[in-house]
Amino acid sequence: MGQPSGATPTRAPGQAADDRSLGEIVSAVTTDLSTLIKQEMDLAKVEMKEEFAKAGKGAGLLGGAGLAGYFTIFFLSWTLLFLLDNWMPIEVAALIITGVWAVVAAVLALTGRKALKESNPQLPKTQQTLKEDAAWARAQKS
User: pLDDT of 106-129, one tens digit each?
Assistant: First the structure.
């Protein structure tokens, strides 16, 4: 005879799921959208964490370059002071220290600049999956 009320109709293999009620379809779409939004938020969090780590590393290296630049000026000032005041071999040592700090500052600045250029705050994976999700949502409407 008929199926009891509340029973799920049986389907033949390969039969489309078109016989669902409107409430079932809305419930399934709502659940799918909720899961989809949660997954997108999780992906965005992971991507942002990665990009902030890259940017933080670059900023730290640039901070180190600033400190090294400060020491360059400090030791260069002392070197010039000794050269003008004493004209003794200690000046050679002061120039060597100044040269070392100048090299350190240059290396840190170049490395920090490279790290900042490599960071990508546009979240390309999240953008791509959002496009795919929009296409999926459009397909659900038709």
Answer: 999 999 988 888 877 777 777 788
| Cβ atoms 58, 119 nearer than 8 A | yes
Using DSSP's 3-state secondary structure scheme, residue 20 falls into coil
Q: Under DSSP, is residue 122 helix (H, G, I), strand (E, B) or coil? A: coil
> Does an H or E element contain 23, and which?
helix 22-85
pLDDT at residue 13 above 80?
A: no
What is residue 107's predicted lDDT score, i.e. its pLDDT?
A: 94
Distance of CA 8 to the CA centre of its chain: 46
Rg (CA), the chain: 32
Q: Are 86 and 134 in contact (CB under 8 A)?
A: no
Mean pLDDT of all residues in 63-89: 79
| Phi/psi at 5 (5° precision) | -65, 140
Quick one: tokens of 48? 């942002």
